[in-house]
Design goal:
The protein is mainly alpha-helical. It is built from 5 helices and no strands. The radius of gyration is 14 Å and the shape is globular.
């Protein structure tokens, strides 16, 4: 029996693909994986289960994400991916969709900096 797919496994696959330049992911799959990962972080931080919907096009503070949780999410994203989401970025009321697009766009640069 194989382990169930989660946002975390999608992110791990995305990171593995990004580390292999000849097989890099397209922007759409990277953004989808990043969005799933961010939704999983929100669920974890707010103690939500899989059945609870997380609207991805509302500003994160409208989801109930306070400044402390936003900073924790930013720290986790940087730890897991190398992508820096500054306090200013998180305070500008971004949606999860916009944050995912940013993570996906900056991931190759973050991984290059990590290697260099």
């Amino acid at each position: 029996m194989t382990a169930p797919r989660t946002a975390d496994t999608d992110l791990k696959e995305l990171l593995a693909q990004s580390r292999a330049p000849e097989r890099g992911p397209d922007d759409g799959s990277a953004a989808r994986a990043a969005l799933g990962y961010l939704v999983a972080l929100i669920r974890e931080g707010m103690d939500l289960d899989e059945r609870e919907s997380v609207p991805v096009d509302l500003p994160i503070d409208d989801l109930g994400v306070d400044s402390l949780l936003a900073l924790e999410i930013g720290d986790r994203v940087q730890e897991d991916t190398g992508v820096v989401l500054t306090a200013e970025t998180l305070a500008d009321r971004p949606t999860l969709t916009l944050l995912a697009e940013r993570v996906a766009a900056e991931l190759p640069s973050a991984l290059s900096a990590e290697r260099g």
